[in-house]
Amino acid sequence: MKIVDDIDLLLINTPLFREFPNKYDEDSLPPLGVGYIASHAQNQGLKVILIDSIAERISLKSLSFKMNSLAPKTIGFNIFTTNYQLVKELVEG
């Protein structure tokens, strides 16, 4: 089931946790690099969605569901050393 039609590019600021801890209260910084890519792609006429899973506190399972529901043509991820295993699991799933 697709939620939105014809998404050219889905960009994801990847999660730091499989499930966000209840007491996690740190502010997140906006993903500027991913934002620049999204802006440039939109300026080129592509339909782009950016999901900031950290700011939105999206679990890995929910993020996977969103990715599959949106069914974009292309997906881009950022990755950090600290969340390598989570991103690997997300991509392989």
Domains, number: 1
Number of strands: 3
Coarse structural class? alpha/beta
Question: What is the N-to-C succession of helices and strands?
Answer: EHEHEH
Into which percentage range does the β-strand content fall? 15-25%
Shape: globular
Summarize the structure.
This protein has 93 residues and is α/β, with parallel strands linked by helices. It is built from three helices and three strands, in the order E-H-E-H-E-H.
Overview of this protein structure:
It is a single chain. 34% of the residues lie in helices and 15% in strands. It has one domain (9-92). The chain contains 3 helices and 3 strands. The longest helix has 12 residues, at 32-43. By secondary structure, it is an alpha/beta fold. The mean pLDDT is 87.
What characteristics describe this protein?
alpha/beta, 93 residues, 34% helix, 3-stranded parallel sheet, 3 strands, globular, single chain
Give me the secondary-structure topology.
Blueprint: E1 9-13, H1 32-43, E2 48-52, H2 60-70, E3 74-77, H3 84-92
Parallel strand pairs: 1-2, 1-3
